[in-house]
Write a structure and sequence with these properties.
The protein has about 90 residues and is an all-alpha fold. It is built from four helices and no strands.
Length: about 90
Amino acid sequence: MPKDESDIEDPLELNGAVVPCEEDNDEAMAIAFIEEFLFLDFTANRILGIFKDPNHVGPNRVYRNKGEAYVRELIDRTLEPWTDTE
């Protein structure tokens, strides 16, 4: 098989899947993304940039569906317990 073709039988081949859901899970999904990037030491502005970037499909979907103000508030609320305010 040529190197540029994917092989569905290859256990090391990266494969994506769409998981349908019945309810609006944008907030839970966005919080998971925010926490993940927080633990990678990203700043709030850098995390917002990921939500704005259409190459990051999950975060960008939340950004498009809910708007920038919603995402900013969610980032601030999620980061608050992890931020040193003293």
